Amino acid sequence: MRMPTEYFAALKTAIERCDTSETRDQYRAGNFPRSDRVNDLDARYRWDLFWHVQPQLREAGHSFPDDLKDSHIDTALRRIVAPLAA
Asked: How many distinct structural domains can be found in the chain?
């Protein structure tokens, strides 16, 4: 993973606040936009959480590293967000 440690820590903290049992239940039930088009529910959930917390991170002074690839971000998200089936 090529994400700076301080950004990972901030991302983890922000996502953990949003990753609630209620939110998980909504996704499991398909109560989110365009749920009928989802092939990988866990990936969709991880990335929705990621984009949801971006404004908070920017506001707190944590700028998104421009050189990160999607695969780097997804690796970090997999470490932070447990699968919905769990």
From this structure: 1
**Taking a C-beta distance cutoff of 8 angstroms, is the pair 49, 18 a contact?**
yes
Q: How many C-beta neighbours within 10 Å does residue 40 have?
A: 9
Residue 50 belongs to a domain: yes
pLDDT in tens, 13-69: 999 999 999 999 999 999 999 999 999 999 999 999 999 999 999 999 888 778 888
User: Which residue's structure tokens are 């609630």?
Assistant: 20
Taking only Cα atoms into account, the Rg of the chain, rounded to an integer number of angstroms, comes to 13
Domain that holds residue 74: 5-80
CA–centroid distance for 53 within its chain: 8
Residues 49 and 81 sit within 8 Å (Cβ to Cβ) = yes
For residue 20, how far is the Cα from the chain centroid?
Answer: 12
Assess contact for 80 and 16: CB atoms under 8 A. yes
